[in-house]
Design goal:
2 copies of one chain form a homodimer. Chain A has about 140 residues and is α+β, with helices and mostly antiparallel strands. Chain A folds into 2 domains: about 70 residues, Orthogonal Bundle (Arc Repressor Mutant, subunit A), CATH 1.10.10; about 50 residues, 2-Layer Sandwich (Dna Ligase, domain 1), CATH 3.30.1490.190. The first copy, chain A, is built from 5 helices and 6 strands, in the order H-H-E-H-H-E-E-E-E-E-H. A 3-stranded antiparallel beta sheet of chain A has the order 1-3-2. A 3-stranded mixed beta sheet of chain A has the order 5-4-6. Chain A binds a DNA duplex (30 and 30 nucleotides) through helix 4.
DNA sequence: GCCGCTGTCTTGAATCAGTCAAGATTACGT
DNA sequence: ACGTAATCTTGACTGATTCAAGACAGCGGC
């Protein structure tokens, strides 16, 4: 988990001003992987007091654009954020409770990046989402 | 493209009542692959006259539950529907204009289905989304 | 250490896809 | 043709996200 100064360094490195909300949001994303905006807002407020809802949206967008966090949007879920960037990893999503876990792809660094027929598209990323049941929901499918 | 009676057969085969809106929606999904709900509503109204927005949502849900259509939700897009079901295929999405094309996966019928470490999840599907630029947007990136 | 510029945050309203609910209709088995 | 349960219509509502305008505050330069 990065320290306050690590976080500041990350922000400055991305040419972003160091502000209370930004430090808090980036820290929250590191501490709560795959959290949605609302959870992050809660964590931020617990950390630094009142922060507007809009600020969190703005900060998350800025961090995403700067490549400091990654936004993921599994079907049927609101946007979630994670701090693991720049490594090719994917996600398993529980169909029942929505829990998300990281998965390193089995078939190499850029799995399936060559589609069989690309229709002339210039493909730059292959995103894989695994669907199934998490351990808890496997035991009690309809809690 | 299925005929009216093909569509009726599909509906009956799924134990769904044959109604005007259902026939029209299922036909529209076949005719407009990857269309969003609103486009489908437009196509349906052009076909059979006034149909409520709610009916289209209901029908799409029923068809999806019955496995007659598949719902896809690329990040940053509204829900879209397609009639290709039961074959393992994936999608390329244009980052610029949102256009979607089908892609048969290069590495076999169920690509990457074995994640390197599944965290105890019971995985039943691997969904792959390729991101890039469609031919038109490759030429004029910021139209 | 102070100033100003510009980027960031606050406040408050708006949008948009999708859902909920209640009652009217209608397909379909008998 | 009839009755019933599924389906459709109407209309209100939710919840995530965005837009807009003005107040505020980092940070580079003096």
């Amino acid at each position: 988990m990065p320290t306050r100064s690590d976080v500041e360094r990350l922000l400055r490195g991305a040419a972003l001003r160091v502000t209370r909300p930004r430090v808090a949001v980036l820290t929250a994303v590191h501490e709560h992987p795959h959290a949605d905006t609302d959870s992050i807002l809660g964590a931020v407020r617990a950390d630094v007091g009142e922060v507007s809802h809009q600020a969190v949206y703005d900060v998350l967008r800025a961090l995403t654009a700067a490549g400091l966090v990654r936004r993921i949007e599994p079907a049927g879920s609101v946007a979630r954020y994670e701090s693991r960037v720049a490594d090719n990893h994917h996600h398993v999503v529980c169909r029942s409770c929505g829990a998300i876990a990281d998965v390193d792809c089995a078939v190499g660094y850029t799995p399936c990046l060559t589609a069989s027929h690309d229709h002339g598209y210039a493909i730059d990323e292959a995103e894989v989402t695994y669907w199934g049941l998490c351990p808890a929901c496997s035991i009690a499918p309809s809690s």
